[in-house]
């Protein structure tokens, strides 16, 4: 039994999903296109990385084999394969809930690609209850671009910026001190109530600091207000059985704080890796450590920054030996992702892709597991490993 650790590299898809065409994502391949860009010398970042992508530890575990790529001749040292998503959306909650055994088989509500994007009645309700005198934005946008465009006006008028994407989200950007962080969280809680009837997955607080369009920066105080998963997930199976669930980074928010024992936050992937090791050091037998590494998605995938994404992968890879050294004989670790976000693809949205499944531990025998039909096989395997009641979806590959 010992412990289980799930590491989600947020947005690290490894190839076009069989149903990608329905999402307008045919040909998307986050890993494959980063590899190619690095090889072509198009992903050099001054002082941070250059040349071909070097991921020796992920390669050793079987990343290339999982992606069906012939570049590596190494025999995988992990249980290796890939998984398709059956959830209707390619968003973060859908991906994580499916990993935890609860695919999203209903349709989220989405806001149209029009301006305004939000129903006027909805905005009127949020403005009335939220104590603001109006909003800016009201459209589909990239979060960094929209604060550059409207941040100064937002600071001057006190009106927060409302925007959305191809995900089921209402995002609210406001200045951390001029508008106020707690006030922004309160406003998001009001918005959360009003978007519930529209079946919107998340309201996201996007605080920023700085004084001019050029210096505005989003802070680590982002907060996601998610709806709870529609059924009990692996996390609740664990906590109901008296186990502790250690949630690293965004995990607690993504699961609307259901089935979480403790939350450890960190600013950036490296801090999140530190928190993961810290949780592992404290986890008892039977516990689950569940970590999300958000930089891949937020800082590089959505920003279509190939070099940054490559550098972040290499930095993550360099830390894997520390994780392996901290694992006890009966532990299981699974490296996976929640969707793709190909930094070479058009637009700035997620991409429908298959994700890697690399499961390893001192007593886990390497083997191929092929292409799994659903991410839920990960949750089923973790449940089996921790001797928890089986999740209602997924089959264990262990
Ligand atoms: O452009 P930013 O604000 O990073 O937004 C991105 O972050 C949202 C939540 O992950 C996604 O829906 C995407 O729109
Ligand atoms: Mn995600
Ligand atoms: Mn994202």
UniProtKB/TrEMBL annotation:
Its EC number is 5.4.2.7. Pathway: Carbohydrate degradation; 2-deoxy-D-ribose 1-phosphate degradation; D-glyceraldehyde 3-phosphate and acetaldehyde from 2-deoxy-alpha-D-ribose 1-phosphate: step 1/2. Its main location: cytoplasm. It catalyses: alpha-D-ribose 1-phosphate = D-ribose 5-phosphate; 2-deoxy-alpha-D-ribose 1-phosphate = 2-deoxy-D-ribose 5-phosphate. Mn(2+) 1 binds at residues 10, 338-339. Residues 3-389 form the Metalloenzyme domain. Keywords: Cytoplasm, Isomerase, Manganese, Metal-binding. It comes from the Bacteria. The keyword Metal-binding applies. It is an enzyme of class 5 (isomerase). Its cofactor is Mn(2+). SUPFAM superfamilies: Alkaline phosphatase-like, DeoB insert domain-like. Gene3D superfamilies: Alkaline Phosphatase, subunit A (3.40.720.10), Phosphopentomutase (3.30.70.1250). Pfam families: Metalloenzyme. It is found in: Cytoplasm. Binds 2 manganese ions. GO terms for molecular function: phosphopentomutase activity. The keyword S-adenosyl-L-methionine does not apply. Mn(2+) 2 binds at residues 297, 302, 350. Belongs to the phosphopentomutase family. PANTHER family: PHOSPHOPENTOMUTASE. Isomerase that catalyzes the conversion of deoxy-ribose 1-phosphate (dRib-1-P) and ribose 1-phosphate (Rib-1-P) to deoxy-ribose 5-phosphate (dRib-5-P) and ribose 5-phosphate (Rib-5-P), respectively. This is Phosphopentomutase. It comes from Jiella sonneratiae. The gene is deoB.
């Amino acid at each position: 039994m010992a412990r289980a650790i799930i590491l989600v590299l947020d947005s690290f898809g490894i190839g076009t999903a069989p149903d990608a065409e329905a999402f307008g994502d045919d040909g998307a391949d986050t890993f494959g296109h980063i590899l190619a860009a690095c090889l072509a010398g198009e992903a050099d970042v001054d002082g941070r990385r250059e040349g071909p992508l070097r991921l020796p530890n992920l390669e050793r575990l079987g990343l290339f084999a999982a992606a069906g790529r012939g570049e590596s001749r190494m025999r995988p040292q992990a249980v290796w394969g890939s998984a398709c998503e059956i959830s209707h959306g390619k968003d973060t909650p859908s991906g994580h809930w499916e990993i935890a055994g609860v695919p999203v088989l209903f349709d989220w509500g989405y806001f149209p690609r029009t301006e305004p994007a939000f129903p006027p009645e909805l905005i009127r309700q949020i403005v009335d209850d939220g104590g603001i005198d109006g909003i800016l934005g009201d459209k589909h946008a990239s979060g960094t671009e929209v604060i550059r465009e409207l941040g100064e006006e937002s600071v001057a008028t006190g009106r927060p910026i409302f925007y959305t994407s191809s995900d089921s989200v209402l995002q609210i950007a406001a200045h951390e001190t001029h508008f106020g962080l707690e006030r922004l969280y309160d406003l998001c809680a009001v918005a959360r109530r009003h978007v519930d009837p529209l079946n919107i997955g998340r309201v996201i607080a996007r605080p920023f600091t700085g004084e001019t369009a050029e210096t505005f920066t989003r802070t680590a105080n982002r907060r996601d207000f998610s709806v709870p998963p529609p059924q009990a997930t692996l996390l609740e199976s664990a906590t109901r059985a008296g186990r502790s669930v250690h949630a690293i980074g965004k995990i607690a928010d993504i699961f609307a704080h259901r089935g979480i024992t403790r939350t450890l936050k960190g600013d950036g992937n490296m801090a999140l890796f530190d928190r993961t090791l810290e949780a592992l050091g404290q986890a008892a037998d039977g516990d689950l450590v569940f970590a999300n590494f958000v930089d891949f998605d937020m800082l590089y995938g959505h920003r279509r920054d190939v070099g940054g994404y490559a550098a972040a992968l290499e930095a993550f890879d360099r830390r894997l030996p520390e994780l392996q050294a901290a694992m006890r004989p009966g532990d299981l670790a699974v490296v996976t992702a929640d969707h793709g976000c190909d930094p070479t693809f058009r637009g700035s949205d997620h991409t429908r892709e298959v994700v890697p499944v690399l499961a390893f531990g001192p007593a886990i025998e390497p083997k191929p597991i092929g292409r799994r039909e659903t991410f839920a096989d990960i949750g089923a395997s973790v449940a089996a490993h921790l001797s928890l009641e089986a999740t209602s979806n997924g089959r264990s590959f262990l």
